[in-house]
Amino acid sequence: MTLQLNLPAFDIELRRDAAGRTEVYDPLRRRWLVLTPEEWVRQHFVHWLATAYGYPTSMMANEVGMRFNGMVRRCDTLIYARDLSPLCIVEYKRPSVDITPAVFDQIARYNSVTGARWLMVSNGLRHFCCRFDGRGYTFVRQIPAYTDL
Questions:
Q1: Domain coverage including residue 82
Q2: CA-CA distance, 136 to 89, in Å (whole number)?
Q3: Does 69 reside within a domain?
Q4: Domain contains 114
Q5: CATH number of the domain bearing residue 128
Q6: pLDDT (tens digit, 9 = 90+) per residue, 52-77?
Q7: Could you write out the DSSP letters of every residue in 19-88?
Q8: Residue 108 main-chain phi, psi, to 5 deg
Q9: Which of 7, 59, 69, 134 is at a distance of 20 to 30 A from 53, taking alpha carbons?
Q10: What gap in Å lies between CA 74 and CA 69, rounded to an integer?
């Protein structure tokens, strides 16, 4: 899978499993996963945050479970502050999925549990970032560096 993204290319680790499916190595989870379009976006976006904006991979976690309305949901990527409090939630969609208000509703519901100050959404082609001040969300023009969060 080599979907064209609006993210820098890098040497992503791929292999074939016994069934012939393509797998990708996720360095944050330290395991091989079946490569899906959403996972392709996740791996590129995480790499971009780390290399272009100084996000420490030690402060990021993929597929973090959380309880919302009695159900377990998974946050695509959670970025932690130095004190290990939730700092930013990132939601990914496959490139063919438009970023709509419903996507922001989903991430805002997750944020009602985490209380993160920042939210990001990407489908690999378009990326959005906003800051939460406790009352509402303010979109910013570009992804901030980790030290600016």
A1: 37-148
A2: 15
A3: yes
A4: yes
A5: 3.90.1570.30
A6: 999 999 999 999 877 767 777 788 99
A7: TS-EEEEETTTTEEEE--HHHHHHHHHHHHHHHHH---GGGEEEEEEEEETTEEEEEEEEEE-TTS-EEE
A8: -65, -35
A9: 134
A10: 13
Report yes or no: 29 and 60 within 8 Å, Cβ to Cβ.
no
The average pLDDT across 8-30 equals: 95
Residue 112 has pLDDT above 90, yes or no: no
Locate 105 and state its tokens.
Answer: 């509703």
- Which 3 state secondary structure label does DSSP give 112? helix
The per-residue pLDDT for 88 is 96
> What is the distance between the alpha carbons of residues 120 and 45, in angstroms, rounded to a whole number?
10
Number of domains present in the structure of the chain:
1
Bridge pairing between strands 118-122 and 86-92: parallel
- Among candidate residues 58, 17, 60, the one with its CA nearest the CA of residue 35: 17
As given in the structure block, the two tokens for residue 73 are: 């949901």
Residue type at 123?
N
Q: Which residues, at least 6 apart from 143, have a Cβ–Cβ distance to it below 8 Å?
A: 49, 52, 53, 120, 127, 129
Per-residue pLDDT of 42-56, as tens digits, reads: 999 999 999 999 999
